[in-house]
Specification:
The complex is a heterodimer of chains A (75) and B (284). Chain A is built from one helix and seven strands, in the order E-E-E-H-E-E-E-E. Chain A has one domain: Beta-grasp domain (Ubiquitin-like (UB roll)), CATH 3.10.20. Chain A has 75 residues and is mainly β. Chain A is globular, with a radius of gyration of 12 Å. Chain B folds into two domains: 61 residues, no CATH class; 211 residues, NAD(P)-binding Rossmann-like Domain (Rossmann fold, 3-Layer(aba) Sandwich). In chain B, the strands form two sheets. Chain B has an eight-stranded mixed β-sheet, with helices on both faces. Chain B has a two-stranded parallel sheet with strand order 1-2. In chain B, 40% of the residues lie in helices and 17% in strands. Chain B is α/β, with parallel strands linked by helices and 284 residues long. In chain B, helix 7 crosses helix 8. The longest helix of chain B has 19 residues. Classes of the chains: A mainly beta (75), B alpha/beta (284). Chains A and B meet through strand 4, strand 5, strand 6 and strand 7 of A and helix 5, strand 7, strand 8, helix 10 and strand 9 of B.
Chain lengths: 75, 284
């Protein structure tokens, strides 16, 4: 069993949560986590694992903290 | 030159030359107010308009800003505030690039927009405004859409470029051109209550890390729109980055993305990797 901390930012919080601890039987990819949260890859801006920029196919392991930010492009 | 220098020194008070004397010197010696500003700063005399800069920006640094050329790509929500702040802080040459005219839906946030100027080129209005605010600044308005194909020419000579665009594809083209020119790029983007800033140094691929979906031109701003205060905040952060890069001071947001959430009043920072081969842990 692994525990990860999921932090959502900006409007990803709306109807979801700010921070949540989630348990999984084994390492899970960010892509799978996003699908669970009903966040499409097209809406995704930046993924951060433990403060560092990460890729959607990176795996999350026990104790990891993942931050999920929406795509922002306006000026 | 000796005469003008002597004249300026005779008018200087407590290290400052007031605007009337700056203007008077230009008229008397048949040169521009910009020329008088350069002479003053080289002699350690500060044009009085900058006296509230003095504790944080030395006269030598003020001269560095005055001899700098900054290009601002986009003159909308972010670009308007960026241009205004660059001119007020004393950047000597600003190029501002935007193909659009002001429309009614710009009035909620774009600093240079007004009812009287609806339908006018944004960069022409910006240039007019800056001439009123700080006539020593040379402002070059360019009514063109920035593209990869014209980018090298449009940005030639700039020491720093500011990304104030609203289209992700064009932002990526800008990032590429800035790398080719070996010029730092101060990037900012906004959507609703949210925004972010990073400074891409010439050797970095910061924007490619942020925008990795091919073909996505807009983000959540399409849904959320943009109010008046978010561009003002993000533009100000961008200007502080420009000043730090030009003066080689402080800690610019190089390889760091600063995310601002004005709804929950939170700031988050993401460490950006230098290139794809350094992408975070856990990759198969």
């Amino acid at each position: 069993m692994i525990t990860i901390t999921v932090k959502l930012f900006a409007n990803f919080r709306v109807g979801r949560f700010k921070v949540e601890q989630r348990d999984y039987p084994q390492a899970i990819s960010c892509r799978k986590l996003l699908a669970e949260l009903s966040i499409s890859v097209e809406e995704l801006g930046v993924l951060m694992i433990n403060g560092r920029h990460a890729d959607v196919d990176d795996l999350l392991s026990d104790g990891d903290s993942v931050g999920i930010f929406p795509l922002v492009g306006g000026g | 030159m000796f005469d003008v220098e002597q004249w300026i020194e005779s008018r200087e008070t407590a290290g400052l030359l007031n605007w009337a004397d700056q203007q008077g010197a230009a008229k008397r010696f048949g040169v521009s107010v910009a020329c008088i500003e350069a002479i003053c700063l080289k002699r350690g005399i500060l044009p009085a308009r900058y006296q509230r800069n003095r504790s944080m920006i030395s006269c030598r640094e003020q001269l560095c800003l005055f001899t700098s050329h900054v290009a601002v790509v986009g003159c909308g929500g972010l670009g308007g505030f960026v241009v205004e702040e660059l001119a007020r802080v004393g950047i000597g040459h600003i190029t501002v690039i935007d193909p659009d005219v002001f429309e009614e839906h710009n009035l909620n946030r774009q600093l240079f927009s007004s009812i009287a100027d609806l339908g006018r080129d944004k960069v022409a209005v910006a240039a007019q405004r800056i001439t009123q605010v700080n006539p020593a600044v040379v402002i070059t308005p360019v009514v063109k859409a920035f593209k990869h194909s014209n980018g090298l020419g449009l940005l030639a000579g700039a020491q720093v470029v500011v990304d104030a665009l609203d289209c992700i594809t064009t932002r990526l083209e800008l990032a590429q051109v800035c790398r080719a020119l070996e010029v730092p790029l101060v990037h900012g983007a906004i959507a609703g209550w949210y925004g972010h800033v990073t400074t891409q140094m010439p050797e970095d691929h910061s924007l490619e890390s942020l925008y990795h979906h091919p073909g996505a031109d807009k983000g959540i701003e399409r849904k959320l729109g943009n109010p008046s205060f978010t561009p003002a905040v993000i533009a100000s952060l961008q200007v502080s980055e420009v000043i730090k890069v030009l003066l080689d001071r402080g800690s610019p947001l190089s390889r760091r993305l600063m995310m601002v959430d004005l709804l929950d009043m939170e700031v988050a920072e993401v460490s950006l990797v230098a290139d794809a081969s350094e992408t975070g842990k856990g990759s198969p």
